[in-house]
Design a protein that fits this description.
Protein name: Riboflavin biosynthesis protein RibD
CATH class of the largest domain: Alpha Beta
Shape: globular
Order of helices and strands: HEEHEHEHEHHEEHEHEHEHEEEHEHEEEE
Oligomer: single chain
Structural class: alpha/beta
InterPro entries: APOBEC/CMP_deaminase_Zn-bd (IPR016192), CMP_dCMP_dom (IPR002125), Cytidine_deaminase-like (IPR016193), DHFR-like_dom_sf (IPR024072), Eubact_RibD (IPR004794), RibD_C (IPR011549), RibDG_C (IPR002734), Riboflavin_Biosynth_HTPR (IPR050765)
Number of domains: 2
Helix content: 25-40%
GO molecular function: 5-amino-6-(5-phosphoribosylamino)uracil reductase activity; diaminohydroxyphosphoribosylaminopyrimidine deaminase activity; NADP binding; zinc ion binding
CATH topology of the largest domain: Dihydrofolate Reductase, subunit A
Radius of gyration: 22 Å
Organism: Falsiruegeria litorea R37
Family: In the N-terminal section; belongs to the cytidine and deoxycytidylate deaminase family.
Strand order of the largest sheet: 11-10-9-8-14-6-15-18-17
Length: 358
C-alpha cells in the first residue's frame, strides 16, 4: 500500500477533477502491475495497472488507495475492470465519499466473490486525498498557503523590492510544490508588482497548474506575462460583480477564463472564491499571496496547510508584512496550526504546518 500511495502522488496536480489514486497488482509476492491516475483524470489507476499485469492479474491481489469507482462516467467502472480481470482480493485504503461510488464499488467486488479489505494506511491516504474529499464534501479545494519572508516576517522592503528574499534552493522547492497542485493562486497586487509567470520550470512538467488571480476590478496589465501566455497555460481571473465589461471581454479574448465571485465588504469573498474554484474542478490550490489574500483565507479558516520559507535577513517595520490585517483582538481568535516539518533548504528554513484540531 505504501507503494500504491507513492504512485498516486505522481498524479497530484495533473489529474483534477479526479482523485490522484495509485494501484499495485501483486501475484505470488511479485509486483506484476503498477498504475496511477493519468493526466486529465483518465485512465484511472486500476486499468493502467491491470493492463500492465495482463493475465498475471487473475487470482492476484490489487492494492488501491481509494475505493474503485462503480459508475459509468467517461470510462467503464474500475470495479468491473477488476472483476473482469479475475482479481481475487482487493486491499483498499479508503472508502470514496462521492455519493456516486461510496460503498457501491466494494459491494460490486464482494458480489463477484472478491475478498475486500478496507482501512490499510487510511490516515496516509486521507492526507494525500484531502483535496478530493474537501471538494466532494464541502465544495472547495484544499488550500496550501506559502509565505516566503525575512526573519521578521516581511515579504518586501518599503520600496517594494522583494527579489529575492529567499535563495535558489527555496525557489526550486516552491516549483516542486506548484507541480503537485492543480492551481497557483495570487492576489492582484502580487500580479501587478511582480509580473509573475506562475509556471513550473525546470521540473520536466508536461501539464502546468492553472494560474488563478483574484482581482476585484480586473485592474491587471494586459501586456503582462500572464496575459501573453493565457492561450498556452490556463489563466483564470476571479473578479467582483462590478468588473468592467470591456476588461472582461479583453481578457476573454486573450484566452483567460473569467469567474465572477461575490464580495465580502470591499473584498472578494474568500469562501465564495473557493466554492467557485471547486465547482470548476480544482482539488488542490497553492496560494502564494499577497498579504491581503493570505489574510482573508486565514481569517475565514480556509487554509489547510501552511508553508513558510524564512530567510536569515531582517527588513524592519517599514517593510511589507507577509499578512494583511485580520482584525484580531485576542490570541484565542488567531488561527493555529500544528508543526509537521522543519528543515534547512539551502540558506533558508522551511517550516510546514497543518490545520490544528479545532
Amino acid at each position: 500500500m505504501a507503494l500504491a500511495l507513492s504512485l498516486g502522488r505522481r498524479g497530484q496536480g495533473s489529474c483534477w477533477p479526479n482523485p490522484a489514486v495509485g494501484c499495485v497488482i501483486v501475484q505470488n509476492g511479485r509486483i506484476v502491475g503498477r498504475g496511477w491516475t493519468q493526466p486529465g483524470g483518465r485512465p484511472h489507476a486500476e486499468p493502467v495497472a491491470l493492463a500492465q499485469a495482463g493475465e498475471a492479474a487473475r487470482g492476484a491481489t490489487a492494492y488501491v488507495t481509494l475505493e474503485p469507482c462503480s459508475h459509468h462516467g467517461k470510462t467503464p467502472p474500475c470495479s468491473q475492470a477488476l472483476i473482469d480481470a479475475g482479481v481475487a482480493r482487493v486491499v483498499c485504503a479508503l472508502q470514496d465519499s462521492d455519493p456516486r461510488v461510496s460503498g457501491q464499488g466494494f459491494d460490486m467486488l464482494r458480489a463477484a466473490g472478491i475478498e475486500v479489505t478496507v482501512g490499510v494506511m487510511a490516515d496516509e491516504a486521507a492526507q494525500d486525498l484531502a483535496g478530493f474529499f474537501l471538494k466532494v464534501e464541502q465544495g472547495r479545494p484544499l488550500v496550501t498557503l506559502k509565505l516566503a519572508s525575512s526573519f521578521d516576517g516581511r515579504i518586501a522592503t518599503a520600496t517594494g523590492e522583494s527579489k529575492w528574499i529567499t535563495g535558489p534552493h527555496a525557489r526550486r522547492a516552491v516549483h516542486a510544490m506548484r507541480a503537485c497542485h492543480d492551481a497557483v493562486l495570487v492576489g492582484a497586487g502580487t500580479a501587478r508588482a511582480d509580473d509573475p509567470s506562475l509556471t513550473v520550470r525546470d521540473m520536466g512538467v508536461e501539464r502546468q497548474p492553472v494560474r488563478v488571480v483574484v482581482s476585484r476590478h480586473l485592474d491587471l496589465p494586459l501586456m503582462s506575462q500572464l496575459a501573453r501566455t493565457a492561450k498556452d497555460v490556463p489563466v483564470w481571473l476571479c473578479h467582483g460583480p462590478g468588473a468592467d465589461i470591456e476588461r472582461i471581454k479583453a481578457w476573454e479574448g486573450l484566452g483567460a477564463k473569467l469567474i465572477p465571485c461575490a464580495l465580502h465588504g470591499v473584498q472578494i469573498d474568500a469562501n465564495d472564491l473557493l466554492q467557485q474554484l471547486g465547482a470548476s474542478g480544482l482539488t488542490r490550490v497553492f496560494c502564494e499571496g499577497g498579504s491581503a489574500l493570505a489574510a482573508s483565507l486565514l481569517a475565514d479558516d480556509l487554509v489547510d496547510d501552511l508553508i513558510g520559507f524564512t530567510a536569515g535577513l531582517a527588513i524592519g517595520a517599514e517593510g511589507l508584512p507577509s499578512l494583511g490585517a485580520m482584525g484580531l483582538d485576542r490570541l484565542a481568535q488567531a488561527p493555529r496550526f500544528q508543526l509537521a516539518e522543519a528543515r534547512p533548504v539551502g540558506p533558508d528554513i522551511l517550516h510546514r504546518w497543518t490545520r490544528a484540531l479545532r
